[in-house]
Fold these 2 entries.
Entry 1:
Amino acid sequence: MILDDFMMRATLAGLGVACAAAPLGSFVVWRRMAYFGDATAHAAVLGVALSLALQISVFAGAMAVALVMALAVTLLTGRGYAMDTLLGVLAHSALAFGLVAVSFLSGIRIDLMAYLFGDILAVSTGDLAVIWGGAALVVGLIGWRWSGLLTSTLNEDLAHASGIDPKREKLILTLALAITVAVAIKVVGVLLIAAMLIIPAAAARPLSRTPEGMAFAAAALGAGAAVIGLRAAYMFDTPAGPTIVCVAALFFVATSLLGSVSRAG
Amino acid sequence: MPGLFGKGAGMSLLSLQNLSVRYGASTVLHDVSVTIEPGEIVTVVGPNGSGKTSLLRAIIGAVTPSAGRVTRKPGLRIGYVPQRLHIDPTLPITVERFLRLPGPVDKRACLKALEAAGVPDLAARQMSGLSGGQFQRVLLARALINLPDLILLDEATQGLDQPGSAAFYRRIEEVRRETGCAVLMISHELHVVMSASDRVICLNGHVCCEGTPEKVSSAPEYRALFGSGTGGALALYRHDHDHAHDGACDHDHAHDHTEAAE
């Protein structure tokens, strides 16, 4: 069977994450939520530790903690601390508590590196199902609310005037972010999830004329980075997750140069 | 009784009854009653921080009033032009795509709205590449696209030069004439908008006074100061607040509004 090949499973996992990350990452870039994505991803380490301790699914644990984190940030914003301070406190505390919690799990032998940087080559068929299920959920959620999300991203009052509640749209993004973090842990690890969100979307910007175009271009670039990154990791025997991010970063450099050339010309 | 201009309350597009809005401990609007009738152009003036924007935000439902009521005519369609619209440079969007937000709108309606706003040729352009005047007209086109009964403009000509804003307000008047919609606008540029307004409301946390621009511009102190050529702008800013206010007003009533006149 085709899924018996670990490279094939890894490629499919990478493509799934790229598809979920592209539309969400576009919103993260437009709304300047990059650090918010980072904080949510870091919190997932605590989720991993808890789910290993409680012997529940890592996906479920990571998603639950990521969601709590994202909701906490959303609720605490505008209550005396600047957003970046708040995120700095929450993100790094969650990461630290997560790492400490993992150290208590002496009975269980876990490879921490696998959660920090991903272990895409160890993706099982079951993992694939979760990744693609989660990705479909994220794409469906964002596709369903696309107009409302876009309108409230442009201007909250404009959204109100059109009968859209920006708070609800924000909650939907928060939920999508938590799902994406949970499914991307295995592929790129918590430290590089934000990279998969932001870099393909940023690389797609100079190529796009409409918001939809940017989301699709981000998906294509993310998918390309996943495929090429995996081949490169195989050839040069480098860690797969970081190699994928490196390829995405090269795409970013290339499209930025292209963008500045076409602007100058 | 300020604000009660409507004769048949059932016919009004919009009525605010004893509306109060507070942000935390500070009350920005209190006991404001305003009624908007079909087809009229109403201008709200007032110094900075007088609650003008909060008034519009209460009407569109972006702030919840702490007291009072906002009553819309059933099925009322509102077109809203915000004070400032910053589109992040990372967000690519063409004028046509912007006009289609959030509802599905066909291409003909987009082009028609752009024409009505006086910028027929911009559909394919990037929003980020527009000049200030073009941008404001595209915002107007978006407000017009669902054929509104009421257009709300929040200092829609901010950043435009005087001929630009004069042309913008002439356009608003034409739109009103063509479509019969009512207009409620906030403006600092009274000299430009006065002649186009049916009614002017002076707001400073509450409705200080209101009336027709003619009434204001025929005031003797206005003629003495400015003659009759400027459309009555500064007269309104110099009027006397000699009427009694009931309720607790904690703000300074000695304002002469000159900061807003520019």
Note: Chain A touches chain B through 29 residues (CB under 8 Å).
Entry 2:
Amino acid sequence: MSDQTHANLLEIGAAVRTFRTPEGGIVAALDEVGLAVRANEFLTLLGPSGCGKTTLLRAIAGFEDLDRGDIRLDGVSLAGVPAYRRPFNTVFQSYALFPHLNVADNVGYGLDVKQLARHERDARVAAALTLVGLEGYGRRKPKQLSGGQQQRVALARALVNRPRLLLLDEPLSALDRNLRQAMQIELKNLQHEVGISFLVVTHDQEEALVMSDRIAVMNGGRIQQVGTPGEVYDTPANRFVAGFIGVSNVYAGTIDRRDGSLCIVRTDGGIELWARSAAFAAGARVDFMIRPEQIRVDVARTAAQAPGLEATVERLVFVGADLQVHARLADGSPVQALVRHRRTPVEGLAPGSAVRLEYDPEVVHLMAAQP
Amino acid sequence: MSRRSGRVLDAYGAAFLLLLYAPIALILVYSFNSNVVNMMAWEGFTLDWYRSIFGLTTRLSESQIYVHSTEALLAAVRHSAIVALCASMLSTAIGTATALGLARHDFRLKRVYQGLLVLPMVMPDIVLGIALLIFFVGAGFKLGLTTIVVGHCVFLSSYVFVIVSARLAGMNTELEEASADLGAGPWTTFRRVTLPQIMPGVVGGALLAFIISLDDLVITYFIAGVDSTTLPLFIYGMLRRGIKPEINAIAILLLVFSFVVAATGLWLRSRRQ
């Protein structure tokens, strides 16, 4: 039993935090949030701004109190433990480097506070700077560094204390695109190297998919889904997750009838869609999701065996090697399909042309409709 | 901009500076004028007025000088220095602590409290002086250096509060969170992060408080005792016996001292950055 609980490094149970708006209303930044952080994992809190992810991070760090619920480290509640007694370190969105201290003193700050012996302190600072690729930068002031270098200093300053858990608040948002992509891989490698759990807050779904072992998708103060990048992409828990991660076509409808494990869904627009799912009974309200890359565009409109939808092409968009096809179904709802590796125009595919969109009922996804 | 309006602006600027600095330049010149009858007519260069202040031998006769007792003048200087040092240090501590408290905590009537803190700055000196006098006498205090220091702290704390508050408003509060995040308790965070960040404001506030305390006349006039005459009170007393050239020398010495204090402050600030 005790082994079971210790598999989780950090557990958040039914956390509630409300804020008063200037207009006098009450907004729940955290609404019954439950989440577990495992040992040595890269967990991302993903959600749009204002979804409560930063509040959750700050509550873990000890900068925000919870109204209700608790945060447990190794099964022990952290209620009443101030930030400076929690074995976590944070990489702030603004980096929050101390401008009056040089790089080495910034990195050594946590060790100085613990009054570590001088030689050990210096050795650990040097090792941390080497880890982030900034050896020899110790005597510079933060102002003399580029944004990417400052970010590395912030990382080193946190990691040098060997925290149980590293909290990162939008760590890459201030970097330009190329540097951000390089740092995504680097952060992931760093996490493997140091063996410390990383909890990263981000609103960038691509970043979350690239870096994470698991992703917790948040919206409106609630955790929508927790899963591996593959799970949240292929089998999103609801319409919000499907729309927030990647591009998706989602249609609300009702299970019309079942044929074995095959569900026949009638959308609110009257279109019939097929999906393989055992989770829903006839009459259930569902959201039907299909990713653009799961759709095959049949220009010749041959009556094939695969289920298909009649659609009218509205717009073609070249995205590098791929071709995005924006079209409308018979009931007027939009649909997006992707033609892979197509550099030359497809015969008969032009705005206004009628096409048949084929899909495989085995790969599309049914979700319970949100109330 | 046309050449013509440029010239008009130049002339305006020159006239403005002349009006501002000519009287001070005149005092400087008069303080070295050897004409004992009419100090506005230049006769020749002398250091006698400065020598007289410090009680050195001069060619001047008794009737030509004010400062009959260098001891009294030096006592006034000493009193002013004690008052300015104590009042500026105390009010810096009070003003900084108040600014921190108000910037970092939320409580009811915070705005009202902020307003009350700034009020002594806009209150007429005469009102404040009378109020303090009535308070000290009513409470049974003996008027002296202590009452001057306390009285000065009342309004100097407001100046320090305003200056330090401005500095705190520009400070990134995430720095304090970062410090706590790295294991530093509240006191360590204050000493190693907050104080270094607001130091230019604290030093600036202290220097301003020092200078204001040093030349305050009106409030001090009400709450000084007979044996606690400060330099401004001493000079004011001298003036009642007519304007004599020594006053110029004293004014110039005060000016030089104020410059040194201000320059030290600026130098300390530039060294930090």
Note: Chain B touches chain A at residues 172, 174-175, 177-185, 188-189, 192-193, 196-197, 272 (CB under 8 Å).
